[in-house]
UniProtKB/TrEMBL annotation, chain A:
Tagged with keyword Cell division: no
InterPro entries: AlkB_tRNA_MeTrf/Diox, Methyltransf_11, SAM-dependent_MTases_sf
GO molecular function, one term: tRNA binding
Keyword Methyltransferase recorded: yes
Source organism, top-level taxon: Eukaryota
Keywords of the record: Methyltransferase, Transferase
UniProt-listed Pfam families: Methyltransf_11 (PF08241)
Protein name (Swiss-Prot/TrEMBL): S-adenosyl-L-methionine-dependent methyltransferase
Automatic annotation (TrEMBL), chain B:
InterPro entries documented for this protein: Trm112, Trm112-like
Family, as annotated: Belongs to the TRM112 family.
Gene3D superfamilies with a match to the protein in the record: 2.20.25.10
Chain positions covered by the region annotation Disordered: 62-111
Biased composition (Acidic residues): 95-105
GO BP field: rRNA (guanine-N7)-methylation; tRNA methylation
GO molecular function: protein heterodimerization activity
Pfam families found in the cross-reference section: Trm112p
Protein name according to UniProt: Trm112p-domain-containing protein
Length: 255, 153
């Protein structure tokens, strides 16, 4: 379990989220290349020439999906942005989800993939969603459905089939290890439900190999309905929502 | 950082966003670098209506680049006018149609200039300054950094 909620906030995230990604950037990036199907579908369905933001773009793997739109990818980690900037025709900048440098209501779309769950208090998570929604174009009239759309993805509490085994009723604020193997070439994340054979493999490693390094990242695991709640709270409307492999996702517009 | 990016950026401070003078950000002490990339006519045509032309002109002037025309190019300006079909093509209509393809459009000089300015001209080092609060955002190794110091958040 992570620290109590009163200790959390911006300083806490600087240590337990931002610093970690800065350290694990290239290793993390080498494991992040396959787009998730719902995100892939969302990006490919955009009309050519759409303009959007990938807020918390990490290594920019979603910038590679559709070259007919223009995406400004942003991330807190400058090491990840150095990797993300290779994707043409897009752009990559260093920015904070809570202080985004985009004109309000100017973009056709935004994606926030596996980002909001790193904010460490309920208020900051709602604020982060609000900042994502604020970059979206407003609909042309109250009834119109033509406003900008945001796709938001967060890690789910309900994932008992995963190797981590979290489920309904478990602690939602957790520290998740990122293990960099001694050589740096392989990764293994240890969950709460560690399998016996994994432990065995570790013990069998020759002693002269460089030691593994474990980094802990803070996550708030979303329970069913919580993402929709945060979106409503942030002044958005949920257009579509669902669950995809251990994650809750929602497509939202401005109210 | 590609100049096109400036079309979609403003000051990261919440209090500046509602002020018209915060857009666009002004490049200062900028070291430019040309990074060549393939011209995509469809892409250029599609983003054309989204360009804040007079602001982009202003940025170009501040950077000392050749000045842009006063009004933005039209979609038609981006392609060279197709040359009239030669009579010889009538003799082999099928092969010409299949190989030539109807969509074979040739980018005009205007399209090439626009591509060069927006997608190939990049700020390698320098600053981006908010016209409202005067805050300076650093650009280093081609990456602009919008993280604010604690007292400005």
């Amino acid at each position: 379990m992570a620290s109590s909620s009163s200790e959390r906030g911006s300083d806490y995230e600087a240590t337990h989220v931002h610093a970690v990604y800065e350290d694990i950037a290239s290793h993390f990036s080498s494991t992040r290349y396959k787009p998730w199907p719902i995100v892939d579908r969302f990006l490919k369905a955009l009309p050519d020439g759409s303009i959007g933001a990938d807020i918390g773009c990490g290594n920019g793997k979603y910038l590679a999906v559709n070259p007919h739109v223009f995406i400004v990818g942003s991330d807190r980690s400058s090491n990840l942005i150095k990797i993300a900037r290779q994707h043409h025709p897009h752009a990559a900048i260093v920015a904070d989800n809570l202080s985004l440098p985009h004109p309000q209501h100017s973009l056709d779309f935004a994606i926030s993939i596996a980002v909001i769950h790193h904010l460490s208090t309920p208020g900051r998570r709602v604020e982060a969603v609000k900042c994502v929604l604020e970059v979206l174009r407003r609909p042309s009239s109250e009834e119109a459905q033509d406003g900008g759309k945001a796709l938001i993805y967060v890690w789910a509490l309900e994932q008992k089939e995963s190797r981590r085994g979290w489920d309904e009723g478990h602690e939602q604020d957790v520290m998740v290890p990122w293990v960099m193997k001694g050589g740096g070439e392989k990764r293994k994340e240890k969950g709460q439900r560690k399998k016996g054979n994994e432990a065995l493999t570790e013990r069998q490693e020759p002693a002269e190999q460089p030691k593994d390094k474990t980094f802990l990242r803070y996550y708030h695991l979303y329970r069913k309905g919580e993402l929709e709640h945060d979106i409503e709270e942030a002044g958005g409307t949920v257009v579509e929502a669902g669950y995809e492999k251990d994650n809750w996702w929602a497509v939202a517009t401005l109210k | 950082m590609k100049l096109l990016t400036l079309n979609f950026l403003t000051c990261a401070r919440r209090t500046c966003k509602t002020s018209p003078s915060s857009f666009p950000l002004h490049p200062r002490e900028a070291e430019l670098e040309i990074l060549e990339s393939e011209l995509n006519l469809v892409f250029l045509r599609n983003i054309l209506p989204r360009l804040m032309w007079s602001e982009l002109r202003g940025i170009g002037e501040e950077l000392g680049l050749p000045s842009l025309p006063e009004s933005p190019p039209s979609r038609e300006d981006l392609v060279t006018k197709p040359s009239p079909a030669k009579p010889s093509s009538v003799t082999e209509p099928s092969s010409v149609e299949e190989e030539g393809g109807e969509g074979e459009e040739v980018p005009s000089q205007t399209a090439k200039d626009l591509h060069r300015l927006l997608l190939e001209t990049t700020i390698k080092e320098g600053k981006l300054v908010c016209g409202n609060c005067g805050h300076e955002y650093a650009v280093k190794e081609g990456v602009a950094n919008f993280l604010l110091p604690g007292h400005l958040v």
